[in-house]
Amino acid sequence: MNEIRRVLVVGGGVGGLTAAAILARRGTEVIVIERRPAFDIPGVGLGQPANALRVYDSLGVLEEILETGFVYDRMHIFDPSRKLIAEHKFLLGDDRVPAFCALSRLQLHKILLAAAERAGAQIRLGVEVSEIHEDRDCVDVTFSNGQRDSFDLLAGFDGIRSTTRLHLVGTAFAPRPSGYGAWRVQAPRPADVRGMEFLQGVSSKTGAMPLSNDIMYLFHIRSEAAGANFAGQDQAKLFKERLAQYGGYVPEIAASLNSSSDIVYSPIEPLMLPWPWFRGRVVIGGDAAHTFAPHLTQGAAMAAEDAFVLAREVLADDGSVEARLMRYSMKRYPRCAFVYTFSGQWMHDEQSIHSAEELEAARAELTLNASARIGASDRILNAAI
Ligand SMILES: Cc1cc2nc3c(=O)[nH]c(=O)nc-3n(C[C@H](O)[C@H](O)[C@H](O)COP(=O)(O)OP(=O)(O)OC[C@H]3O[C@@H](n4cnc5c(N)ncnc54)[C@H](O)[C@@H]3O)c2cc1C
Q1: Among 148, 167, 198, 295, fewest CB within 10 Å belongs to which?
Q2: Range of the domain at 286
Q3: Ligand 1 pocket, 159 CB below 6 A?
C-alpha cells in the first residue's frame, strides 16, 4: 500500500509544524504530537532567509511573517569597537521574497501553528511516542498517554535530541559538543542596526539581529566547556564579563543585564546524519537529522525546506514509499551538508582568532573575501529546491 493518507508528525517546532501544514493542505490526515505541554518556545529570534520564506509563501503566511518581523537585505562585519570591516548585500530573494526576515521564535511558531491548524492538522500537546512498531504497510505507535494508533508514515521533526533518530540509528550518530556555545538576550534595537551584524572579537564573536522596529537580539559565541549550561548561576554577571571587550551598543546592553533578564545559553553541537534519513515508514528531518553552527542562520530554514521536500516527495504518488523517502533523503543531504560544512568552518575560523595580531590578519582577509564567500553560499541557497 503506497498511498500516504495518515501521518504522525513528532515535534511541533518549525520543521514539524511546516510539514504538518503542507501535508494537511494537500488533504493528508495529520496528527502532530509535541512533548511540551504548551508552546512556550525557548530561544530568542530567528533570521529566516529567502529560501525559508519561499516555503512559508507556499503555506500562505509570507505576508504575515513579513509584517511581523524585520526585513533586511545585508549584513555587516565589524571589529570589537564596531568599526566596519565588511558589508555584504545578500544575493538571496527575488521580486516576491526579500533576502531575510527575522522575527521572534514565538511569533514564527504562532504563525506556523495557526497555518497547520487551519489546514486541518490535529495538535496534541504534552505527548511523546513510547513505542514504535513497524509493519510493511504501516507504523503502529504507542503514545506516552497509553493510547495507540496506526499511521502510513511517521515523520520525526523532534529536534537535536530526537528519539525518532534514536529509533532509526541508535546512538551511532549523536550531536557532540563543538566546544562553543551561544549566549542570547533580547534588547532594544538601536536605529542603526538595520540588518544582521557580527562584531568579530578576540576569542569570541558578538552580534545582533533586528527582530522588529523596536527590538533586536544580541548574541555572543565563544568557547565554553562541554556540558556547561549555567543553570542556577548568575548568568547576567557571566554574560557581562564575556562582553567586556565589545563597544558600540554592547556596553549599554551589558550594563542593563540583571537577574530578571531572559538570557538564553545553548551549546553548539553540530550533527550531520548520513542519508538515508529513514527506515521503512519512519523518517526524520530538521535538527533531528542535521544541526548546524548558527552562522548562516539556516537551521530552521533547512528544517522548513526538509518539510517541504518531504511532503512533495511522499505525496508524489510514484514508486514505492521507500523510493520516495530515498528521493527525499538524497535531495536534502547535499544541501544540508553544505550548510553544515560552511557554517562549521566559519565558526572554527572566527573562534581561532586569539590575539590582536590575528584579529588584524582576519580584518584584512574579511575585507577582501567575506562578501564574495558569503555571496557564493547565497547563490547555492537561493537555488530552487
Ligand atoms: C544560537 C542559535 C541561533 C540560531 N539562529 C537561527 C536563525 O537565525 N535562523 C535559523 O533558521 N535557524 C537558527 N537556529 C537553528 C534553529 O533553532 C533550529 O535549526 C530549528 O529550531 C530546528 O527546527 P526543528 O523543527 O527541526 O527542531 P526544534 O525547533 O528543536 O523543534 C523540535 C520540537 O520537537 C519537540 N520534541 C522533542 N522531542 C520530542 C518527542 N520525543 N516527542 C514529541 N515532541 C518532541 C520539542 O519540544 C520541539 O518543540 C539557531 C540555533 C541556535 C542554537
Answers
A1: 148
A2: 6-50+105-175+271-352
A3: yes
Residue 34 Cβ < 6 Å to ligand 1: yes
Spell 216-227 as b/e; 16+ CB within 10 A means b. Answer: bbbbbbbebeee
> Would you say residue 89 lies in a domain?
no
pLDDT by residue, tens only, the chain of 385 residues = 789 999 999 999 999 999 999 999 999 999 999 999 998 876 689 999 999 999 999 999 999 999 999 999 999 999 999 999 999 999 999 999 999 999 999 999 999 999 999 999 999 999 999 999 999 999 999 999 999 999 999 999 999 999 999 999 999 999 999 999 999 999 999 999 999 999 999 999 999 999 999 999 999 999 999 999 999 999 999 999 999 999 999 999 999 999 999 999 999 999 999 989 999 999 999 999 999 999 999 999 999 999 999 999 999 978 999 999 999 999 999 999 999 999 999 999 999 999 999 999 999 999 999 999 999 999 999 999 9
CB of 125 closer than 8 Å to CB of 113: no
DSSP code for 145? T
The residue whose CB lies within 8 Å of the most ligand 1 atoms, and thus the one to mutate among 158, 180, 219, 347, is 158
In short, whether 85's Cβ falls inside 6 Å of ligand 1 is: no
Structural domain tally of the chain?
Answer: 1
Tell me the best of 40, 167, 205, 287 to mutate to test the pocket of ligand 1, counting ligand atoms within 8 Å of each CB and taking the most.
287
Q: Indicate whether 144 belongs to any domain.
A: yes
- Which amino acid is it at 95? D
Q: How far is CA 344 from the centre of its chain?
A: 14
Q: Is ligand 1 within 6 A of the CB of residue 10?
A: yes
